[in-house]
Write a structure and sequence with these properties.
With 376 residues, this protein is of the alpha/beta class. It is 45% helix and 16% strand. The protein has 15 helices and eleven strands. Helix 4 links the parallel strand 1 and strand 2 (91-96).
Length: 376
């Protein structure tokens, strides 16, 4: 073969080699740009990847909650890191509270940004500030409230007349519900003193089990896990509050935010809500693991986990939900007015579900309603 032929063959071989070497790189480049079914399914879009690495506008967010199973979203979300995962480096500063008023005080005083809390404190905090300090931005839980009694003293609901029944605090969510139930029975109770046809004894949930064992109260209208603690001490469930509500749903825990924090750091609030929505989804998909996770967080708070005989019956009675069930909050406010615990409130603007519905829509979930009480 001539020298010219050798040079031609060499150039042809070289070109084939370059194409062969470049082909995998080209395929890889096309895949990384999102071409091909696998890339479309598995690879994040460039904009999403950029957003995922973006720092949020606040270095920390202070989140309040109660050591109650009705605050399971907070317990599990913090324990599993599901909320923190959405915050891109913004630190969570968790704060535990035992009562709604103290959490509202912290929110109003600027030492708390976001809180898990019951509907009655939410209403009271909103009304007292004339609508200037908080917004409800999501639901968290429904149900989980029971009337537990001493079965030796009380066998029917009519037997409650003349007995001493505990609620957690004057004007709290369970107190309002119990006073309304008493009123519908046609019995009279002074809402301030708790004295009347039934003695309503306002007792901290931490103290209620001992008071029940000692016989200083005959029963209690309380949230979980206190209700199941009383059952483990010999009590009997006489009524589950769920049975009193249409569709067997009523809000027991909301997520609220300081209006100042919402205005200044909407990106952080949205990230927290992504975390709570994902937490609730994980709870529904992993009930046993979620129950154990909530119990681990309670143990970290109180020094020991709940006994299986307490947490096992308590856990399924609580419905975890993103929906704030706004219509039921409106009903609870009407009960508080009827009991003369508050004046007729103007609740217009108590909800701002804009960011929650944005998160739900992005997750392919249905949006939720503010029952006409949304911020304009």
């Amino acid at each position: 073969m001539s020298a010219t032929g050798n040079r031609t063959t060499s150039r042809s071989t070289l070109r084939r080699g370059i194409v062969a070497a470049a082909l995998p790189l080209l395929i890889g480049a096309l895949a990384s740009c999102g071409y091909g079914s696998e890339a479309e399914k598995d690879e994040p879009k460039a904009a999403d990847a950029a957003d995922a690495g973006k720092k949020l506008s606040a270095p920390e967010v202070r989140i309040g909650y109660f050591p109650n199973l009705t605050h399971a979203t907070a317990l599990v979300g913090l324990q599993e890191g599901l909320i923190e995962k959405e915050l891109n480096g913004t630190k969570i500063k968790p704060q535990s509270f035992n009562a709604g008023p103290s959490e509202i005080e912290a929110l109003n005083g600027g030492s708390l940004d976001i809180g898990f809390i019951g509907p009655s404190p939410s209403i009271n905090g909103y009304v007292k500030s004339k609508g200037s300090n908080l917004r409800i931005i999501s639901g968290s839980a429904s149900g989980g409230v029971k009337l537990v009694v001493n079965p030796d003293k009380i066998k029917t609901l009519d037997d409650l007349k003349g007995k001493k029944i505990a609620t957690p605090q004057k004007g709290n969510t369970q107190d309002v519900a119990f006073l309304n139930w008493i009123s519908e029975k046609g019995w009279k109770v002074d809402p301030e003193s708790g004295k009347g046809d039934v003695s309503v004894v306002r007792t901290d949930n931490k103290v209620t089990p001992d008071a029940f064992k000692q016989g200083s109260i005959d029963g209690a209208w309380v949230p979980e896990p206190t209700a199941s603690k009383l059952v483990s001490d010999g009590g009997s469930v006489l009524l589950d509050e769920t049975a009193l509500w249409p569709d067997k749903k009523f809000v027991i825990t909301n997520i609220i935010v300081s209006q100042k924090f919402l205005k200044e750091h909407p990106d952080v609030v949205e990230a927290v809500l992504r975390g709570t929505v994902k937490t609730n989804e994980w709870i529904h998909a992993n009930q046993d693991e979620a129950k154990a996770s909530a119990n681990a967080r309670l143990a970290a708070e109180g020094g020991k986990p709940l006994d299986a005989k307490v947490i096992d019956p308590a856990w399924p009675s609580i419905a975890i939900t993103d929906d704030p069930l706004a219509a039921t909050l409106k009903t609870q406010s009407e009960w508080a007015v009827k009991a003369k615990l508050i004046e007729q409130p103007d609740l217009a603007g108590i909800y701002d579900l804009t960011l929650l519905n944005k998160v739900l829509k992005a997750a392919g979930k249905p949006e939720v309603s503010d029952a006409g009480l949304g911020a304009k």
